[in-house]
C-alpha cells in the first residue's frame, strides 16, 4: 500500500512463497479490501485494509485461534498509482500473531466513527422516536386534554428540533471526512436534505395553523389535514432513510461491518407498530369533530 500525489491510497494485491519480495497476484487466495474511510495519506498517514482470516491458524487448547502475520515496509514511494508498479526493497519488517476471535471488539472507535455513531443515534431518536411520539400525542390526547398542543409542540420542536439538527450536522461533518458532496444520494435521493427541509417546513406550517385561524370557517380547514399528511409523510421518509443508513451507508463507509440482525428486526417491528398505533387513534376522530364543531359555534 502507498499514497499517491492526489491523496488517494493504492492497495496492490501481492503474495510471496516466503520471506522474499512479494509479487503482484492476479488471483490471490484472499483478497484485501482498502478502507477508504479509515485510510489517509495526510498528516499522520494511516493505511487500513481488511482481509479474510487465513485457514492456517494455530489452535491452542481452550483459547481462541491465533493468526500469524508478517509485514514489511519501505521508504521509497513507487511513484505511481498503478497496482502493477514495481516496488523497491523493504527497509524493515517483522512478524507477529494475534487472536482472531473477538479481538476487534477492543479496538476503540476513530473520531470519524464516533461521529457517525452519534449521527445515527441522534437521527434515529429524533426522527423515529420523538417525531412519532409527538404525532401520537396529537392523535390521542387532543380529545381529552386542552394541553395536548403544548406537549405536541415540545415533542415535535422543542426536543426533536435540537436532536435532529445536531444529528444532521454530525452527518454532514462526518461525510465531509470521506469526500461526500452535497448532492450525494444519502443526502438527497434517500432523502437527506429533502427530509430536513420538510421537517423545517412542517414546524413553520404547524405554527401558522395554530396562530393564524381562518375567519368564519364552517368546517375543519384544509390546512389542518395537509399538516397531518405532511407529518406522516416525514415519519415514513424518516424510516426509509434510517434503513438505508444502517443497511447501506454503515457497512460501506464506517469500516465496522454490517449492523447486527436485531437492528433490522427492530426496524421492521417499529414500521408496523407505528401505523397500527396511529390507526387505532383514528377512532377518536368522531369525538374530535364534534368538539371542533361545538367550538366553532361558540
From TrEMBL:
GO CC terms: membrane
Domain of life of the source: Eukaryota
CDD domains attached to this UniProt entry: Cyt_b561_FRRS1_like
Gene3D superfamilies reported in the protein's UniProt record: 1.20.120.1770
Start and end residues of each Cytochrome b561 domain: 80-285
Keywords, in A-Z order: Electron transport, Membrane, Transmembrane, Transmembrane helix, Transport
Any one Pfam family match given in the protein's UniProt record, by short name: Cytochrom_B561
TM ranges: 116-141, 153-172, 192-212, 224-242, 262-285
Name of the protein this chain belongs to: Cytochrome b561 domain-containing protein
Chief location: membrane
Subcellular location, record wording: Membrane
Region (Disordered): 79-103
Amino acid at each position: 500500500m502507498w499514497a499517491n500525489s492526489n491523496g488517494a491510497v493504492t492497495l496492490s494485491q501481492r503474495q510471496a512463497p516466503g520471506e522474499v519480495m512479494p509479487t503482484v497476484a492476479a488471483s490471490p487466495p484472499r483478497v484485501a479490501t482498502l478502507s477508504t474511510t479509515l485510510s489517509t495519506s495526510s498528516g499522520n498517514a494511516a493505511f487500513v485494509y481488511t482481509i479474510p482470516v487465513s485457514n492456517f491458524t494455530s489452535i491452542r487448547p481452550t483459547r481462541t485461534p491465533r493468526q500469524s502475520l508478517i509485514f514489511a515496509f519501505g521508504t521509497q514511494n513507487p511513484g505511481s498509482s498503478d497496482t502493477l508498479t514495481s516496488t523497491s526493497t523493504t527497509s524493515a519488517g517483522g512478524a507477529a500473531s494475534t487472536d482472531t476471535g473477538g479481538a476487534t471488539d477492543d479496538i476503540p472507535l476513530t473520531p470519524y466513527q464516533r461521529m457517525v455513531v452519534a449521527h445515527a443515534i441522534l437521527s434515529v431518536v429524533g426522527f423515529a422516536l420523538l417525531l412519532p411520539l409527538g404525532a401520537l400525542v396529537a392523535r390521542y390526547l387532543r380529545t381529552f386534554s386542552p394541553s395536548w398542543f403544548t406537549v405536541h409542540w415540545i415533542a415535535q420542536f422543542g426536543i426533536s428540533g435540537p436532536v435532529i439538527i445536531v444529528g444532521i450536522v454530525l452527518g454532514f461533518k462526518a461525510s465531509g471526512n470521506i469526500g461526500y458532496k452535497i448532492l450525494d444520494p444519502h443526502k438527497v435521493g434517500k432523502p437527506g436534505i429533502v427530509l430536513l427541509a420538510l421537517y423545517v417546513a412542517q414546524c413553520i406550517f404547524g405554527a401558522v395553523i395554530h396562530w393564524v385561524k381562518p375567519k368564519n370557517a364552517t368546517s375543519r380547514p384544509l390546512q389542518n389535514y395537509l399538516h397531518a399528511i405532511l407529518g406522516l409523510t416525514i415519519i415514513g421518509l424518516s424510516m426509509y432513510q434510517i434503513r438505508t443508513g444502517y443497511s447501506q451507508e454503515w457497512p460501506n463507509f464506517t469500516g465496522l461491518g454490517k449492523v447486527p440482525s436485531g437492528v433490522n428486526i427492530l426496524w421492521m417491528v417499529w414500521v408496523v407498530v407505528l401505523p397500527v398505533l396511529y390507526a387505532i387513534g383514528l377512532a377518536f376522530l368522531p369525538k374530535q369533530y364534534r368538539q371542533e364543531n361545538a367550538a366553532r359555534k361558540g
